[in-house]
Design brief:
Helix content: 25-40%
Largest sheet: 7 strands, mixed
Number of helices: 8
CATH topology of the largest domain: Chloramphenicol Acetyltransferase
CATH architecture of the largest domain: 2-Layer Sandwich
Structural class: alpha+beta
CATH superfamily of the largest domain: Chloramphenicol acetyltransferase-like domain
Shape: globular
Strand content: 25-35%
Length: 396
């Protein structure tokens, strides 16, 4: 019996995708739920799984092809796949043969990376099968070891042909094309201005140093600075609702909720996953979600819903060494906060010159909805809260 593998249904806002990679070839044995191919859209990468055990009989679309939802990709001849071929990754061979818990290859790889056993993860697949999403949920819950993430995206490697003045032309990825479109859209449709300030990071660094070990031991997540910036931003957004608003046609929409996007670098480009209702989250929950977003941006496993929407954004160019920049709006949001590198500088306090760890802050805003007074006061509010972190907890 033959099984047809088709392009999964795309979300409403996505019309087509590009078949970027086949993980299997004709004649390869595959296992149920094993990833066969990757399809890139202008927002996320979709994994195409096998819907049953079998052998690849025919591949109908090649890498680089533009595909639509429901389009036929491959045909599988139904049958039990040999155990030796259930994964093309050596780590998958570490599957425990003495357990009756079924595990998908992608889940097995993720468990191996985080030193987990099938007995520690609750499977939600057919017959209790453990899926990749089950392992991710287990890690997010804090029950397992959270995989480490790098602070910077993987660098693009370009190899040039030999010659005196070599050059190489490659098609722009769908995500990169979409990023370009949105950046140009922001420049053409919004009246973007940027205001700057600086914050003395010493109080926040002292607080972090004092409680970091206890925090990480209790919550099993690293204590960074981003959660404090998020908390300070939410308090400032409450005081200046126009910064949390957007323009739709001839209307201004003021949002009574706080969905903050955190810009994350990935091998495919910049993505901005959203922390929903962040005013309801604790510092530990914010740090956990940011760590998870960073890992899954690197893996290309963020869902469309997770990178759609948002009422305000924060970007941290400081992790790449940026001392000062002017961030660009993420339409239709009216503002974005830019963080930068912490650098010791000479400052004057009480008439004396002292050395302090300082960070420049930048707030780019849409002058159509946010006036300069509100923008400056918004940024000053964030500065004041960060320089006296107790005010963040007390909401004063």
């Amino acid at each position: 019996m033959s099984i047809e593998i088709k392009v999964p249904a795309f979300p409403e806002s996505v019309n087509e995708g590009t078949l970027v990679k086949w993980h299997k070839a004709v004649g390869d044995a595959v296992a149920r739920d094993e990833v066969l191919a990757d399809i890139e859209t202008d927002k996320v990468v979709f994994e195409v799984p096998a819907i049953d055990d079998g052998v690849i009989a025919e591949i109908h679309e090649q890498e680089g092809a533009t595909v639509l939802a429901g389009q036929l990709l491959a045909t599988i001849t139904e049958g039990q796949a040999p155990k030796a071929n259930r994964s093309d990754k050596p780590v998958a061979q570490a599957a425990p043969e003495d357990t009756e818990i079924p595990v998908s290859p992608s889940a097995l790889k993720l468990m191996a990376e985080n030193n987990l056993s099938p007995q520690q993860v609750r499977g939600t697949g057919k017959d209790g099968r453990i899926l990749k999403e089950d392992v991710q949920a287990h890690l997010q819950s804090g029950s397992g070891k959270v995989a480490s993430i790098t602070s910077s995206a993987k660098q693009t490697v370009v190899t040039f042909p030999t010659g005196e003045r070599p050059q190489k032309r490659v098609p722009m990825s769908r995500l990169r094309t979409r990023i370009a479109e949105r950046l140009v859209e922001a420049q053409q449709t919004a009246a973007i201005l940027t205001t700057f300030n600086e914050v003395n990071m010493q109080p926040l660094m002292a607080l972090r140093s004092r409680y970091r070990d206890q925090f990480e031991k209790k919550h099993n997540v690293r204590l960074g600075f981003m959660s404090f910036f998020v908390k300070a931003a939410v308090e400032a957004l409450k005081r200046f609702p126009e910064v949390n608003g957007s323009i739709e046609g001839e209307d201004i929409v003021y949002h009574g909720f706080f969905d903050v996007g955190i810009a994350v670098g990935s091998p495919r480009g910049l993505v901005v996953p959203i922390l929903r209702d962040v005013d309801m989250l604790s510092v530990a929950e914010i740090e956990g979600k940011i760590a998870d977003f960073g890992q899954r941006a690197k893996d290309g496993s963020l869902s469309l819903d997770e990178i759609t929407g948002g009422t305000f954004s924060i970007t941290n160019g400081g992790v790449f060494g940026s001392l000062l920049s002017t961030p660009i709006l993420n339409p239709p949001q009216s503002a974005i906060l830019g963080m930068h590198k912490i650098q010791e500088r000479a400052v004057v306090e009480n008439g004396e010159v002292v050395v302090r760890p300082m960070m420049y802050l930048a707030l780019s805003y849409d002058h159509r909805i946010v006036d300069g007074r509100e923008a400056v006061q918004f940024l000053v509010t964030i500065k004041d809260l960060l320089e006296d972190p107790a005010r963040i907890l007390l909401e004063i």
